[in-house]
Amino acid sequence: MKSNSLVELFGIEKGDVVSITGSGGKTTLLFALSEELKTCGRVLITTTTKIFTPSTERADYRFTDLSDYYFVGADTVRVVLGVEDADTGKLLAPSDDVLQRVAKDFDYILIEADGSRNLPLKMWREGEPVISSLTTKTIGVIPIQPYGRKAEADFIFNYEGFVATFGNGSVDCNIYREIIQHRRGIFKNSRGSKILFINQVECEAARCRALRILSALSDASITKTYGSLLKGDYYGID
Question: What InterPro entries does this protein's entry cite (predicted)?
Fold first, then answer.
């Protein structure tokens, strides 16, 4: 089933707090969702880890000092909230208490809840990902491009942990299935409904691989989706 809307594909509704985990497209997905949701209401963009401060094209208001935050009186708006780290230029997470206080000001909250140092695959360490207690939907993002590659440190964050858990063979359908369904995998610490998005599906071979992975999943609680954030092509599995 093809969809032109990520919001529709993921079933996002007013009041949802969406935490995004995984690798290979989290930030792109975050801002693609915010662009769609801005037409529907008031959107808060934040993190429970750290993100680069977004450009003015990606947000209408940016609060990088929590003491400066105020209610923005607009029906449709994108607001970024975080704590600026002068050394790195990144935004650090507001506390869950702060998030709870400002949540009433927004119709939707989008949270980047994971980090992978821009590597396409990862193994989660203790305390990762960081899922807010307010979360109603957890979206796990994983790219298809590493499929078939031998596991190597140059494209896997926490390579040692990955090898200890999944081995150092080829990243095949079985490895993807384990990453997705393992208790310490992509949905570790998840809250609310679980939504999987396989990204970078941009050719027929990639589509076949994505469908092979999705058909191998046994966890019926996961909503299965795939597509290309680059091309804006999105698909759901009934």
Answer: YqeC (IPR017587)
pLDDT at 86: 85
Please say whether the beta carbons of 9 and 18 come within 8 A: no
Closest to 146 (Cα-Cα) out of 6, 20, 23: 23
Q: What does residue 5 show for φ and ψ, rounded to 5 degrees?
A: -130, 125
Q: Is the pLDDT of residue 238 over 80?
A: no
Tell me, what's the pLDDT at 97?
Answer: 92
Fold of 2-236: Rossmann fold (3.40.50)
Integer Cα distance of 31 and 225 in angstroms = 18
Which residues touch 80 (CB under 8 Å, ≥6 apart)? Answer: 44, 45, 46, 53, 54, 58, 59, 61, 62, 63, 91
- How far is the C-alpha of 49 from the C-alpha of 131, rounded, in Å? 10
Strand 77-81 to 61-63 pairing: parallel
Spell out the residues 6+ positions from residue 128 whose beta carbon is closer than 8 angstroms to its own: 114, 115, 188, 189
The pLDDT assigned to 218 comes to 96
DSSP per-residue letters across the chain: -EES-HHHHHT--TT-EEEEEESSSHHHHHHHHHHHHTTTSEEEEEESSEEEPPPTTS-SEEE-SGGG------SSEEEEE-EE-TTT-EEEPPPHHHHHHHGGG-SEEEEE----TT-SEE---TT-S---TT-SEEEEEEESTTTTPBP-GGGEETHHHHHHHH-SSB--HHHHHHHHHSTTSTTTT--SEEEEEEE---SHHHHHHHHHHHHH---TTEEEEEEETTTTEEEE--
